[in-house]
């Protein structure tokens, strides 16, 4: 497995990866087909991330195919430059195979180099796979966002989770 940062050449395959994750995963923010982005728009977004020292997108590649991603979104405000918000997506066929663990290991190396002190994310309280991964990586629940998402006509809670480096 290769873990690497995204390149503009990955734009089309990255769009396909995100769309497939959104089709497979029950708890992503965007519903299947809701996100509409062109390859050129994605290339431009990747360029912005590449130029932002506080943000990164990591890709997991297995057998020359993308298996998952981890986005670290930083801030330009002085008061929270030490914090990154995370978004994770892993294809069903690669879950429970160390993809998430490897993505987080690479992220933490990068975060240390960037002087990140706090990593945070939200996760649906019913997302057992996500919760297991985040707890394994040292994230702790800090609070609950009640009725945060409306999925299939049902309001679901999310946990705020964070890890300090």
Description of the structure:
It is built from four helices and seven strands, in the order E-H-H-E-E-E-H-E-H-E-E. The chain is an alpha+beta fold and 165 residues long. The protein has a seven-stranded mixed sheet, with helices on both faces. Helix 3 links the parallel strand 4 and strand 5 (118-124). The relative contact order is 0.16.
Give a short synopsis of this structure.
The chain has helices spanning 11-24, 39-51, 99-113, 128-136; strands at 2-5, 56-62, 65-74, 83-90, 118-124, 140-151, 154-164.
Specify the biggest β-sheet. 7 strands, mixed
Briefly, what CATH class of the domain at 2-116? Alpha Beta
How much is the radius of gyration in Å? 15 Å
Return the CATH topology of the domain at 2-116.
Aminopeptidase
What's the tally of helices? 4
Enumerate the spans where pLDDT stays under 50 for 5 or more consecutive residues.
none
Mean pLDDT: 95
Q: Can you list the strand order of the major beta sheet?
A: 1-2-3-4-5-7-6
Structural category: alpha+beta
Q: What is the CATH architecture descriptor of the domain at 2-116?
A: 3-Layer(aba) Sandwich
Order of helices and strands: EHHEEEHEHEE
Strand tally, please? 7
The named CATH superfamily of the domain at 2-116: Gcn5-related N-acetyltransferase (GNAT)
Determine the fraction of residues in helical runs and give it as a percent range: 25-40%
Query: How much of the polypeptide forms β-strand, as a percent range?
Result: 35-45%
Q: What is the straight-line distance between the termini?
A: 25 Å
The shape, in one word, is globular
């Amino acid at each position: 497995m290769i873990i690497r940062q995204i390149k503009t050449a990955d734009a089309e395959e990255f769009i396909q990866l995100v769309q497939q994750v959104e089709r497979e995963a029950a708890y992503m923010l965007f519903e299947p087909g809701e996100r509409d982005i062109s390859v050129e728009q994605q290339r431009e977004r990747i360029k912005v991330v590449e130029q932002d020292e506080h943000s990164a997108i990591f890709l997991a590649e297995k057998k020359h195919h993308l298996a998952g991603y981890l986005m670290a979104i930083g801030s330009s405000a002085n008061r929270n430059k030490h914090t990154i918000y995370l978004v994770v997506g892993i294809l069903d066929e690669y879950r429970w195979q160390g993809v998430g663990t490897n993505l987080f290991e690479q992220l933490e190396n990068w975060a240390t180099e960037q002087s990140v002190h706090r990593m945070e994310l939200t996760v649906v309280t019913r997302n057992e796979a996500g919760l297991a991964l985040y707890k394994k990586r040292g994230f702790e629940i800090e609070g609950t966002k009640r009725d945060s998402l409306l999925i299939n006509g049902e309001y679901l809670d999310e946990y705020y989770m964070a890890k300090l480096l």
